[in-house]
């Protein structure tokens, strides 16, 4: 299966959905921006990443599935009550500063390159 390039538009859009609650190298806790829930659901239905991830996923579940598919992500624990997720990741595969840059919409070209490097593995372990 040919994996589509992750568009910068998707990278930027996902950054708007979250804020960082706590971050130490290898572990980050993010919170969903509740005011963005309708936008999250709309994005999840329309993104071209639908081609490589399970079609039955919706909204925040789709984004969690997307994050879980990244080789750098080891584990994700979701707390639906407070709308947060704790992501354990390999800090050698995805530099800690990239998470913060992503949410701040900084260094997006570097993040795009890293995510597209990872995207070559999307679909291999999914579905």
Question: Which class best fits the helix and strand makeup?
Answer: alpha+beta
Topology as H/E string? HEEHHEEHH
Give the DSSP E fraction (strand runs of 2 or more residues). Answer: 15-25%
Q: Could you list the spans in which at least 5 consecutive residues all have pLDDT below 50?
A: 123-127
Task: Spell out the key features of this protein.
127 residues, alpha+beta, four-stranded antiparallel beta sheet, 5 helices, 39% helix, globular
In a few lines, what is going on in this structure?
The chain is built from five helices and four strands, in the order H-E-E-H-H-E-E-H-H.
What would your notes on this structure say?
By secondary structure, the chain is an alpha+beta fold. It is built from five helices and four strands, in the order αββααββαα. A four-stranded antiparallel sheet has the order 1-2-4-3, covered by helices on one side. A hairpin with a 4-residue loop joins β3 and β4. α2 (37-46) packs across α3. The two termini are 12 Å apart.
